[in-house]
Design brief:
This protein has 5 helices and 12 strands. It is α+β, with helices and mostly antiparallel strands. The strands form 3 sheets. The protein has a 7-stranded antiparallel β-sheet with strand order 5-6-7-11-10-9-8. It has a 3-stranded antiparallel β-sheet with strand order 3-4-12.
Length: 173
């Protein structure tokens, strides 16, 4: 047996084999920076633009009704994003907070209003982002029975909602 006759050679071969097993291969990029937005899109996700607003969802979601809504597989969730025109940010936030009944406030800042409501049948996330004199507004609804399959995506979807660049960089495809 080689180990007994050549212990140094055996140890060297084991060290080389271990190094090859632990050496990392180059990884595929997991996120892509969207030029002009400061936002990133994960691998396996798709970026949409509607009404001067952008948002991202997994590629398994499908757009319906002329991109008025995107749907998760089997109707587990839906997302609708639109632009509210000529609405001052402070007025929009005040009206939204007064209009909704007992929302859980996930974020209330100068750059995002994110509210969550649960009626026992579905959980609704309302996310608004200021866009100059307009507001990008998204409504993400998740059926309570499907929450486990979508929960991990909620933060990524909510943070992907925002203004689209007025002019995309020429190298963006």
């Amino acid at each position: 047996m080689i180990v007994h006759r050549f212990p140094i050679l055996a140890a060297t071969l084991l060290a080389i084999a271990a190094a090859q097993l632990t050496a990392q291969r180059p990884e595929r990029q997991q996120e892509l920076l969207v030029p002009g937005t400061g936002a990133t899109v994960k691998a396996g996700w798709r970026l949409f633009v509607r009404d001067e607003c952008r948002f991202a969802v997994p590629v398994s979601w499908v757009a319906a009704a002329g991109l008025q809504v995107v749907l998760a597989p089997e109707g587990a969730a839906s997302l609708s994003v639109s632009t509210l025109r000529s609405v001052p940010w402070s007025l929009h936030k005040a009206r939204t907070l007064a209009w909704l009944v007992h929302p859980e406030v996930r974020e209330d800042s100068t750059r995002r209003l994110w509210l969550e409501m649960d009626d026992g049948f579905r959980t609704t996330h309302y996310v608004s982002i200021p866009n100059g004199s307009d507001v990008c507004s998204g409504v993400l609804e998740i059926l309570t029975t499907s929450a486990h399959s979508v929960t991990a995506m909620i933060d990524t979807i909510a943070h992907s909602i925002g203004p689209a660049p007025v002019k995309w960089p020429p190298d963006f495809q």
